[in-house]
Inverse folding.
């Protein structure tokens, strides 16, 4: 189904949060292992948008793995998913291009960095206006790929974190022409966060993707390419491709959007 948009390419990525160094030390919270740049309140602390008359629309809620503004102080000179070597090689753009290949159609893509919400999942909820703007974007495919910036979850916090994750997806699950929704566990292995993500996906009828141990292997990271440890521990091109393949596989298994 063809839609008409202005032929405008808008890249408006604000300063975001740098994800953690290793994600593997059980004695420390994930948040304690993460460096940070400016942390702005609200949903849109980073956004990359590509629109130009696409046939379908893709929305990605993520963090610095999805979109990060230039941060010269830490050696990051780009405005796409850290630490991909090019815009088209971050996982969000790979998902969009993969869907384009499958559907034989052009995608409009919106990527939002919601790292501030992750860090404050119990209290810092997305504003109704911002969620409404993304519902108005009318996505056909929604990817919720968060969790890396969330402090380690204890038993008391599991219900709150699950509620937060489900809350990100519910506005889209409730759309009259419901998009396909995929929710993935964190790149850096965390069993409790993965359990919460799977439960939230079940509650909203999303397809769950287990990122497994991708973050356990240095081959999936940008090790040796950046001096800053936080940047280098992000997925490199291979890690980005593997994240995208997992998400695309979930869309393949779940079928097309009901809007198609």
């Amino acid at each position: 189904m063809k839609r008409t948009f202005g032929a405008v390419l808008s890249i408006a990525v604000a300063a975001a949060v740098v994800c953690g160094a290793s994600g593997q030390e059980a004695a420390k919270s994930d948040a304690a292992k993460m460096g940070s740049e400016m942390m702005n309140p609200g949903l849109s602390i980073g956004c990359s948008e590509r629109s130009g008359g696409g046939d379908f629309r893709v929305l990605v809620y993520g963090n610095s793995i999805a979109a990060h503004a230039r941060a010269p102080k830490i050696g990051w000179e780009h405005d796409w998913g850290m630490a991909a070597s090019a815009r088209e090689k971050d996982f969000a753009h790979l998902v969009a291009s993969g869907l384009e290949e499958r559907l034989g159609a052009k995608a409009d893509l919106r990527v939002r960095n919601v790292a501030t919400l992750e860090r404050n999942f119990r209290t810092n909820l997305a504003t109704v206006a911002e969620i409404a703007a993304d519902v108005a974007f009318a996505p056909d495919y929604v990817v919720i790929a968060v969790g890396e910036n969330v402090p380690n979850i204890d038993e008391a916090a599991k219900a709150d974190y699950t509620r937060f994750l489900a809350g990100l997806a519910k506005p889209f699950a409730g759309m009259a022409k419901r998009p396909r929704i995929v929710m993935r566990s964190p790149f850096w292995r965390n069993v409790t966060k993965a359990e919460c993500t799977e439960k939230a996906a079940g509650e909203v009828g999303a397809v769950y993707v287990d990122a497994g141990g991708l973050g356990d292997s240095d081959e999936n990271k940008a090790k040796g390419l950046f001096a800053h440890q936080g940047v280098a521990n992000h997925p490199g091109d291979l890690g980005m491709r593997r994240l995208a393949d997992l998400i695309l596989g979930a869309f393949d298994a779940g079928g097309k959007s009901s809007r198609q």
Summary: Residues 8-254 form a domain with the Rossmann fold fold (CATH 3.40.50.1110). Residues 155-173 form the longest helix (19 residues).
